[in-house]
């Protein structure tokens, strides 16, 4: 029976993967701010005179500026988007939760000054606001919506992420992307990265079809396993979806 027609089994044996750096998506990967973003689009929809539920259908994993182009191009500018997104963490901070395992994984990477970055469709005010409100580790490197011409699934953001980790010049560099959205998974694969897909916001079928190399429930399945003798990073992926 094909995988997508039977009950998902997250029972794959633990696998230790050597990587040179890690690129994380933000929403749905590090935090789940779905309820807050719904309220954000209600605010924006009210301003635009558009049913927010229609906007929300197409918004996850996309830059706000790209979504706004569909409904009111006059609002599709960084001044407006950064202002509106910057309000979200302070106004709706109580509506976000951590993805299980995210805090410990980021803290463990930060503790050894590992090369990691956030690559997101959100603006810097949104991302930094959430990291402050949730008291999560801040990356030294970030790629946000303002930094690229094309949003996901275009690979530009992850190619830029590799560059900001100073890991883009060597074709053998082994970069891991952690994503939840099909558009982001496709972007990571197109950028030449291995991708962990999190089953936090989309169906397993969508994640598999997007090309994720591993599918896990959340970041409790992803752990740093370095020791003093380790060169690069060793990431353990446990309880992934059986192939």
Strand content: 15-25%
The total of beta strands comes to 11
- Summing up helix and strand content along with how strands pair, one would put the structural category as alpha/beta
Helical content (DSSP H or I, runs of 4+):
25-40%
Spatial arrangement of strands, main beta sheet: 6-5-2-7-8-9
Shape: globular
Note the total helix count: 9
**Alpha-carbon Rg, integer:** 18 Å
Strand count, sense and closure of the main sheet?
6 strands, parallel
Average pLDDT, to the nearest integer? 92
State the order of secondary-structure elements, H for helix, E for strand: EEEHHHHEHEHEHEHEHEEE
Parts with pLDDT < 50 across at least 5 consecutive residues: none
Straight-line N-to-C gap: 12 Å
Explain briefly what this protein structure is.
With 243 residues, the chain is an alpha/beta fold. Helix content is 38%, strand content 17%.
Can you describe what's shown?
- By secondary structure, this protein is α/β, with parallel strands linked by helices.
- The radius of gyration is 18 Å and the shape is globular.
- The chain has nine helices and eleven strands.
- The relative contact order is 0.21.
- A six-stranded parallel β-sheet has the order 6-5-2-7-8-9, covered by helices on one side.
- The longest helix is centred in the first third of the chain and has 15 residues, at 34-48.
- The model has no long low-confidence stretch (mean pLDDT 92).
- The protein has helices spanning 34-48, 52-59, 64-71, 78-92, 102-111, 124-134, 156-164, 182-190, 204-210, and strands at 15-19, 21-24, 31-32, 97-98, 116-119, 141-143, 175-179, 194-198, 214-216, 222-224, 233-237.
């Amino acid at each position: 029976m094909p995988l997508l027609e039977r009950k998902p089994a997250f029972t794959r044996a633990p696998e230790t993967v050597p990587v040179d750096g890690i690129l994380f998506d933000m929403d749905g990967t590090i935090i789940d701010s779905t309820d807050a973003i719904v309220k954000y689009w209600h605010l924006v929809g009210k301003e635009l005179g558009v049913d927010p539920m229609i906007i929300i259908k197409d918004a996850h994993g996309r830059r706000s500026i790209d979504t706004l182009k569909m409904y009111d191009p006059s609002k599709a500018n960084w001044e407006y988007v950064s202002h509106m997104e910057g309000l979200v963490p302070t106004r709706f901070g109580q509506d976000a939760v951590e993805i299980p395992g995210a805090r410990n994984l980021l803290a463990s990477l930060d503790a050894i000054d590992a090369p990691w970055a956030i690559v997101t469709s959100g603006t810097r005010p949104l991302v930094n606001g959430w990291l402050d409100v949730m008291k999560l580790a801040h990356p030294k490197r970030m790629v946000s919506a303002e930094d690229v011409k094309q949003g996901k699934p275009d690979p530009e953001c992850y190619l830029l992420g590799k560059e900001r980790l100073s890991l883009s010049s060597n074709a053998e560099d082994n970069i891991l992307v952690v994503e939840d959205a099909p558009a982001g998974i496709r972007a990571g694969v197109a950028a030449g990265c291995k991708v962990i897909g999190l089953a936090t916001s989309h169906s397993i079928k969508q994640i598999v079809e997007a090309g994720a190399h591993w599918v896990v429930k959340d970041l409790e399945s992803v752990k740093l396993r370095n020791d003093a003798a380790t060169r690069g990073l060793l990431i353990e992926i446990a309880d992934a979806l059986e192939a």
